[in-house]
Write a structure and sequence with these properties.
The chain is α+β, with helices and mostly antiparallel strands. 43% of the residues lie in helices and 14% in strands. The protein has 8 helices and 8 strands; from the N terminus they run H-H-H-H-H-H-E-E-E-H-E-E-E-E-E-H. The strands form 2 sheets. Strands 3-2-1-5-4 form a 5-stranded antiparallel beta sheet. Helix 3 packs antiparallel against helix 4 and helix 5 crosses helix 6.
Amino acid sequence: MEERTYRSPVRGDEITGAGGQQWEFAYREALSPYIFWRVLVVIGIYLGAYAAICPLGADHLTSTQRFLYLALGAALCAPLCYAEYVVTLYLTRHWAPWHIALAVAAGTLAVTPTAVAIAYGVDTLSGRILHPDDLPTVCLFMTLSLVLGSAVIHYLLSQRVRNDPSRGPTTDTVTESGTLPAPGTAAATDPPAAEPPSKFLDRLPVEVGQDLVYLKMSDHYVKVVTTLGQCDILMRFADAVAELGDQGLRVHRSYWVAYPHLEGWRRQSQRTLLQLTGGHVVPVSRTYLGDLRAALVRRPALGTADPTPAEDR
């Protein structure tokens, strides 16, 4: 039988572990009130400590004057540095957590020269407390302050992301043992009972119907493809998957498919692809192969080849 090939809209079969999936929306958490107030507390602690030890001179100023002097610099530097932090989280949201941390560190170092320039600008407005010869000391002070502050805030955010209860229930490990049912064999068990209508279906416009084929994550939106058309819903992808329950299966960090529309699967260019009704093709990442195997055990086998990657056999 001649195999038809369809173009998939994803860039590749990207693999992310449990940590990578958790960090997909970390940039949103960074803007949440929970983190915002803790950032202010961290800045306040630093200002109090620096005003007490006075690391950049200004011994002739009172503690209040030193605090206000440093507070003015922080008020100008903090928004710039934090904006860089959030942008870095957004651009690296699909990276591994360790790579995200390295990117944050690199971004912090990149904005240090700008922070030094702001410090000298504030010093000019405050009567030139600093001396031009103090530039190496100021650079070192600003670098240590920004790196330490970013590390503390990144740690707080990592704890927030790790304990986020809103993540969709997904299986993040691949079962190494066991194989899929041979093509054409009967299902090992009866299919599960039909699920009651989910709250997610109530969000769909009437013109696209409620017969879901697959969902795709697209930034802040969920692209919904049905047998009648498609639409975009503003919500988190993990929340959409959770609302749909057992009506389908998440097969990729960006894709969920409905059970009734699975037509087959195949291996192509070292990738596992699911073929759906309507000519749609979506990828399966290794992270979700365990879920796919378990689902196929409960249904007639699909496709004509074993979707288990060669290195896992």
